[in-house]
Amino acid sequence: MNIHEYQAKAVLRAFSAPVANGFPAFTPEEAVEAAKKLGGPLWVVKTQIHAGGRGKGKFKEPEAGDKGGVRLARSIEEVETFARQMLGATLVTVQTGPAGKQVHRLYIEDGANIDKEFYLSALVDRVTSRISFVLSTEGGVNIEDVAHNTPEKIHSFSVDPATGIMPHHGRAAAKALGLTGEGAKQIESLVTRLYTAFVNKDMSMLEINPLIVQSNGQLRVLDAKVSFDSNALYRHPDIVALRDETEEDAKEIEASKHDLNYITLDGTIGCMVNGAGLAMATMDIIKLYGESPANFLDVGGGATKEKVTAAFKILTADSNVKGILINIFGGIMRCDVIAEGVIAAVKDVGLKVPLVVRLEGTNVDLGKKYIRESGLNVISADDLDDAAQKIVNAVRAAA
Length: 399
Prior knowledge:
Elements: H1 5-13, E1 22-25, H2 28-38, E2 43-47, E3 58-59, E4 70-73, H3 76-86, E5 90-92, E6 101-102, E7 106-110, E8 114-125, E9 130-136, H4 143-149, E10 154-159, H5 167-177, H6 181-200, E11 203-214, E12 219-221, E13 225-228, H7 237-240, H8 250-257, E14 261-264, E15 269-273, H9 276-288, E16 295-298, H10 305-316, E17 323-330, H11 335-349, E18 355-361, H12 364-372, E19 379-380, H13 384-398
Parallel strand pairs: 15-17, 17-18, 18-19
Antiparallel strand pairs: 1-7, 2-4, 2-7, 3-5, 5-6, 8-9, 8-11, 9-10, 11-12, 11-13, 14-16
Helix pairs in contact: 2-3, 5-6, 10-11, 11-12
Pathway: One-carbon metabolism; formaldehyde assimilation via serine pathway; Carbohydrate metabolism; tricarboxylic acid cycle; succinate from succinyl-CoA (ligase route): step 1/1
Keywords: ATP-binding, Ligase, Magnesium, Metal-binding, Nucleotide-binding, Tricarboxylic acid cycle
GO molecular function, one term: ATP binding
């Protein structure tokens, strides 16, 4: 689960990380009120969307201006002007895709005099099963570009969970960033606090870009991006309360209500599969035959008729879906349950696109019998290769 920058900073502030004062704003009037509370004389007006690259982003609407989604204001009047321009406008960044994201909220923050910019992140290293820190003196730019052009400027170390964060980790961070004296003490303290926050809040990723040294020598978290392990959210109702559903795909939200593993993609063939491995193989073979999947959808091993019906409705609600492939291998899952769910869903919402069904495993004959006797216009397939070819051909023929 992702949260906004201002929410991430509030979480980090609770662990005593050096974060500037700031307030969220949902209207121009709230932006002005926030600026007055902060006092100035320099404010930063930041769009709040779940995507990076906001500062270099461009708004679709000309009236929103061409200064990007992060702007410096030197008067309260400028704060209000920027707020009116950006709220409700659509910001396109390298991470949003061409559709962009509509801006519903801003963050008004104290400005800072920047002396140096660093990059710092913490993430779960799946290879070592440890939390790893990644640091670079090249802050404020895309870390991917640094990794590609100057990989020697990226440093990392991992933390053994048996010992937790230790003083030598702080010293390693200071060395990587070239900090000495008071600066070294500050980064050592910050790394400890970030590690504590990461573990205590079950984060999956924490990125600070940039981490700055101000002209007075003090470190400050200038931008923060935090993601949480969704499987651990039951332990953190305070984090769940930060969820912004306007930043999420409506179909993915609906799928989560039915405990379905669903991710929207940009293809035209909707897929309903049980098991993540089989789902990936299904998407791969659709690509092999020249089309693209519209989604990843794993209904799980113990799906009920109701869950299958819900999954089918989500697929048919996607206007990009020009055909549907249902590929079920019944181990724990029973093929007759899948068939009943599909029949119920089709009768409820109708069927306007080609549908190919491949069933194999437990109660497969009964499942096929249900579909055959349902009177539905369903194309039956014998195996995965046959199913993929049939749905691709059907979509192309209907185009």
